[in-house]
Amino acid sequence: MKQRILSQLCCLALLFSFLLGVHEGRLAMWKDEDPTPCKVFPCPIIVLPKPVQQQLKAGIRLETMDDVNRLLENFLS
Known about the structure:
Strand content: 25-35%
Number of strands: 4
Strand order of the largest sheet: 3-2-1-4
Structural class: alpha+beta
Distance between the termini: 46 Å
């Protein structure tokens, strides 16, 4: 029973998050499992280091907008 409740809470937590990834070759952000990006940045991912490109292609899930901003600063600086 506890495991089921914990699993449900984890699923709910994932619904309210951000995902950084790639949309048409550019860095993009999705919110709350929406299939359409809420923001597409003018940064083509090809200018980023290969390990970062791979992470973005797999998708990077973040919990808060502060986390998103920190990661974007690291990627784009």
